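Quick one before lunch.
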Amino acid sequence: MDLHTIKTPSLVLDVWRVRRNAAAMSGRIKGLGASLRPHVKTHKCVEVARIQTEGHAGGITVSTLAEARAFAAHGFRDITYAVPVEPGKFGEAIELSNLCERFALITDDSSIPPLLDEAARRAGLTLDLFLKVDCGYHRCGVEPDRPEAVEIPRRIDAAKNLRFAGILTHAGHSYHARSRAELLALARHERDLMAEFAARLRSDGVEVPTVSVGSTPTATHYEHLEGVDEARPGNYIFFDAFQATLGSCGFEDCALTVLAAVVHRDRARRKVVLDAGAIALSKDRGPVELDSSCGYGRVLGLGGEELGLRVGALSQEHGEVLVEDESLLDALTVGARVRVLANHSCLSAAQHTHYHVLEDSRVVDRWEIQRGW
Ligand SMILES: Cc1ncc(COP(=O)(O)O)c(C=O)c1O
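Model of the pyridoxal-5'-phosphate complex:
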């Protein structure tokens, strides 16, 4: 099988780039003296996680309980579920902690420790619970200068059936950085804020076993990780048009594309329509703050070469591409195939059931995606 014969739209994964990205981040985080706990939400794929954790302790981060179940069933037994836990998920979290050597949860709410402690006591086990810290993203987490930042760890410490796992943050605001200098400043801030907060908790008598940080834009920029124990980047394994525009990687590092076919050509309007729409690509607007013409993805030739075209408009199963160049418009007949480098690989991957694994120009395998919640 090759890119001329597999069905469209579908995901094409350049496995050499995946291996190269994995090795680069592994070496980088190890070299900085921390452990790597990759976030598998980017790919939700057991084979990719095995590549990512080669030579590491094997710990992973997940964003859904479905990922946790699937990865635990495939031998990953040290998992952090990095979305704040709420009581509706306690039962499943307890089941998962029975399947794992360590299954850690996170919270930023002072009502959770006593409730989770009671659920763990009834189940007869002890659960690991992190404090989620807000280092500037303001999605969730507690800012270190808030009273809850000390109160929650104390409550966890005091609970008989909970273990305080440490402090964890995600610098998601790094996606809005305007320059590499700004990215570097955000990476330093994420690291230093967490290291200083851990030192303060320790001087208050709270043991902090793990200081956990991580996003791809910051993980590609730290120059040291003193005071930090682990990093949890996720997107770096595939990268995407957003990360390349932001400066986390080069376009030649992007490993995931969506194979698409031309289903309509309109010479008068100088456009073609692809069978890859919002579902196949995602509607993530990507690096629009840095490149107002980024559209929803870059259109590449089958060999991965840049064609200078963007997916400009999307509906559910249609992606519109304006084609000014006459010879390109001639070539893009109905049935012609292209690859789209979408803005956000995590969101594109989550819409599909599997990857076609590409080695050179041959499709050599099919890897499943563990979807759902
Ligand atoms: C809590 C948490 N940790 C780590 C990550 C990984 O970030 P990235 O995909 O930028 O590497 C995410 C991504 O959303 C996250 O939410």
